[in-house]
Structure formats: structure tokens, C-alpha cells
Design goal:
Blueprint (H helix, E strand, L loop, with lengths): L1 E4 L16 E4 H4 L6 H8 L5 E4 L4 H4 L8 E5 L6 H4 L3 H10 L5 E4 L6
Parallel strand pairs: 1-2, 1-3, 3-4, 4-5
Length: 111
């Protein structure tokens, strides 16, 4: 699984995914500052999923047809202490999510 972490997420979060998930940040890929539409278009060719905290992405972008899963992290903040506890749930969500869909973690949170 190749996972791209949006630029609003702490870069150290990528180390918490462990074996089976190759996580990289937008900045590491050289795509920082890109608008979402352009980022998604490029990311779908190199990654399986995008992890973001952008709750509006499903309404702002056409996700259907993308060869990419969008995972929206619903944490209190983008601080590592708030996002790190959700990594296991993100990994579980990635096992069943289909490209062209948006899933939120935690699943039972309201957006």
C-alpha cells in the first residue's frame, strides 16, 4: 500500500504505519502548495490512497473515477498526539476501501 500524507499532517505520522504501508508526505514528494485537484490527479498514478484532514474534499473534488482512496482523518487537531492514535483504524479502513471513494476515520464520527 502506497499512502500519501497531505501537507497539513505531521511528517512523523508516516513512520507509524509500519510494514505493508509505504507512507510519504506531500512535501517529500515535492508537491507541497498544490491545489487539491492537481494533487489528486498526480497522486492517483503513484499512490493507492491519500490521507487528509480536509473534511470538504468530497464536496470540492470529483472523487468518483479516481484511482485513489481518500481517507479523511477526523482528529481534534493535526498534532501528532491527536492523529497517531488513529493510525491503526486508518490501516483497517485501507484494507477494504475502493478507489474512487472517501472514507472517514474514525468511521463513526460525524463530519
Amino acid at each position: 500500500m502506497r499512502l500519501l500524507l497531505d501537507e497539513m499532517l505531521h511528517r512523523r505520522l508516516r513512520h507509524l504505519f509500519g510494514e505493508g504501508v509505504k507512507a510519504m508526505t506531500v512535501a517529500e514528494r515535492g508537491w507541497d502548495g498544490m491545489k487539491n485537484g492537481e494533487l489528486l490527479a498526480l497522486a492517483q498514478h503513484e499512490f493507492d490512497a491519500l490521507l487528509t484532514m480536509d473534511r470538504g474534499i468530497r464536496h470540492q473534488q470529483n472523487i468518483e473515477g479516481l484511482d485513489l482512496v481518500i481517507v479523511v482523518l477526523l482528529a481534534r487537531s493535526n498534532r501528532l498526539r491527536d492523529t497517531a492514535p488513529l493510525v491503526d483504524e486508518v490501516k483497517v479502513a485501507l484494507t477494504s476501501a475502493r478507489p474512487g471513494t472517501v472514507v472517514q476515520v474514525p468511521e463513526d464520527a460525524t463530519s
